[in-house]
Design brief:
One of its GO terms (molecular function) is biotin carboxylase activity. By secondary structure, the chain is an alpha+beta fold. The chain folds into three domains: about 100 residues, Rossmann fold (3-Layer(aba) Sandwich), CATH 3.40.50.20; about 70 residues, ATP-grasp fold, A domain (Dna Ligase, domain 1, 2-Layer Sandwich); about 240 residues, D-amino Acid Aminotransferase, Chain A, domain 1 (2-Layer Sandwich), CATH 3.30.470.20. Helices cover about 35% and strands about 25% of the residues. It is built from 15 helices and 20 strands. An eight-stranded antiparallel beta sheet has the order 13-12-9-10-11-14-19-17. It has a five-stranded parallel beta sheet with strand order 3-2-1-4-5. Strands 7-6-8 form a three-stranded antiparallel beta sheet, with helices on one face. The radius of gyration is 21 Å and the shape is globular.
Length: about 450
Amino acid sequence: MIESLLVANRGEIARRIIRTAKRLGIRAIAVHSEVDADLPFVVEADEAVCVGPANPAQSYRNVEAILAAAETTGAQAIHPGYGFLSENADFARTVGDRGLIWVGPGADAITAMGDKINARNLMAAAGVPVAPGTTEPAADLAAAVAAGTEIGYPVMVKAAAGGGGMGMQVAADEAELRTGYDKVRAFAERMFGDGSVLIERYFPRVRHVEVQILGLADGRVVALGERECSVQRRNQKLVEESPSPAVSPQLRARFLAAAVRAGEAVGYRNAGTVECLLDPATQEFFFLEMNTRLQVEHPVTELVYGIDLVEEQLRVAAGLPPTFDPDALAPRGHAIELRINAEDPLRFLPGPGVIGTWVEPTGEGVRVDSGYVAGNTVTPFYDSLLAKLVVTGADRAEALTRARSAVAAFALAGPKNNLPFFAELLDNEEFVSGDYDTGIVGRMR
């Protein structure tokens, strides 16, 4: 097993990785920006190195500063968490070139899946269903308009290099496509340094379902069930649950088989997620993207399958077999995750500030993965995620009951937060029924 691990991230995911590392007897090393010096992940690490000021480009995305920290602390491996450098193929390759272990998929797999058009084409060739769309970037507005006419409206205009719900615009007709194309292209160039745009069919009523995969050290790819991720604002997830209330055993078998084919097509190793769109009317699903990293919502899979995905990641990176029998995977119960964000519960706009009160709920079936404690300051420099409130139950009804109690018991004051939204959602008839889609938040607001 790896003996020393540098965690190239911050907040709750850094704290989460450090917790598993210490349980396994691995020396855990944190890197942090100047404004994060007093956060729990820094305090709980065995060693911590400041890598720069608040600006992520000068700290958490500062490749040379992070590699220098690994060298000075004698780190054997680097875990990138999610966000920041986690899907940066050049960074993954450089880590290996420096003689360090990269806890994630290979650089080639990251590259293959990082471009949405290339990923779509690879998946189609592997027999994974893809939505109607362009097989090469729409080079200019005329090409985009031609694609929209051929595919049929409405369409989604997407940044080919985008991710995390960013760089997307729905176009109901040609006029909206013309406006959306310029917006997405400019955004993509600014955010990703790549203005490539793809056009694909947009489904007005759709569910977002993803499959957790794990590429093992022996070359096999296994699927660890699906997660429902349809409660979203601005195409970004707020709630995830497993199993999906929309997926029958027959549909699940198709989902998992397609996800395994997707992983095998790129020789996938370590943890990843195959994201899909499900048309509830036809039960057809289409490949959306592959996230070549650990997902924010990985705890729901951990709780349903009774495994520690970070431990499995470390074992794969070290060339070790998994702790579980891949041929005897048996999910149990139901898990729901709520993303507690520092944002107002109506418009979902960021609301940083000093945390005056922070009391996490406890009890049977309740888990909180948090990045903060009372007295910490939530700054505007990073994602608004404060914590993940995860509940489990023997079935979905019990999980919902525990979620309501846990939300009511979570005492949080200081920064704005979305706990009131979750209290509303958990009593919403559409959500409680399980028959909801990605438009549910818009209908509530």
